[in-house]
Write the structure tokens for this entry.
Amino acid sequence: MQRRKFMKIIGGSAALLAGGTYIWAAPTAKSARAAWTEAGQYIDPIRSALSYAILAPNPHNRQPWLVELISDTEAVLYCDEDRHLPVTDPIDRQITIGLGCFLELFDVAASNNSYRADIELFSLGAHTSRLDARPVARLLLTPVKQKFDPLFTQIINRRTDRSPFSEQVPNLQNLTALQEAAGSLSGASTRTELVSQLRRVCHEAARIEIMTSHTHGESVELMRVGRKAVKENPDGISIEGAMIEILNVGRAISKEALANHGATAFKQGKQMYLDAVNSAKGFFWVVTSDNSRANQIAAGRAYVRGNLKATELGLSMHPLSQALQEYPEMAEQLVDVHKIMNIDAPARLQMLARVGYGKAQMQSPRWSLDSRIRA
Ligand SMILES: Cc1cc2nc3c(=O)[nH]c(=O)nc-3n(C[C@H](O)[C@H](O)[C@H](O)COP(=O)(O)O)c2cc1C
């Protein structure tokens, strides 16, 4: 019995291809989640807004943000060059989207504090093949009259939900509300034929990513198994739970085992992710007119607004990014998903997420704001 439970937990790890938290039960690393309660507990306006921004969704929970504080109302945002995903995100498209999510939450949180956020993107030029040491954005806060954005209240409730979704299909009113919140780059549908085509391509893409050793290996390297590992590195793919602690799995399990295609754990994990993909009842997406850095940022801003609105509506959202990625093994799926969506180059599908009704999720871990501030 214990062994079966154990395998189920470990199996969950491989299901977390693109980063996240799989919590089977308490105990979890509370300190790794302190950022969720510390948000807004700062007096100066820049730190206050930044303390919400670090709660943004981001690929593999890499938390690629690094901030230089200039004053109480000014800062410069950089990409932390140690926090790329070189295998599955070779041109930093997803990392840039994550930084876009960060900037949107910064903006929403600033307005809640009666500040307008001026965000100047790529002031020393747009980064080309990779994000480099130049600024991603210069941030300036200016006091204004209260301009409350109702989505603000959802920042601390927002999650990525990787659980299988129920049979309940989101209604048209909710889909419209998602698109209104996320803006003109976004779309959503529960049309049966489209949902089944998107499920098929997402399923195949996820299968390829899991079965390709160097792409899956990138995920395995970022797995944090057990409370101690999550506390030490509150990022990446966190795997926590009572059984993990009881069986001392965090120390017993090796990266090699997590990557072994023959292991029961690997097979179960793969099946869990594919089952989650198959439970999609609808999709939400973000498309941009081209794949420029500015548009990747805009895509992140739109995505997180959709994610916040979904939270408000009691809907779950889960990005399925495998088919959108740029590595050679995924080339066919990248073309296929654009065909299904009728998107012609240079336009680009930037985010594709399943939407439906899942289960309550824990917050994902975060590095503290202080640790993300450049000396
Ligand atoms: C650009 C982007 C791509 C993502 N792709 C995936 C994905 O393919 N699969 C997945 O499970 N989560 C994906 N996520 C969700 C992140 O893993 C998640 O935001 C991160 O682990 C932090 O968790 P949270 O959103 O619950 O705070 C993606 C997020 C972003 C911003």
Remarks:
- The CA atoms of residues 225 and 253 lie 8 Å apart.
- Residues 1-26 have pLDDT under 50 and may be disordered.
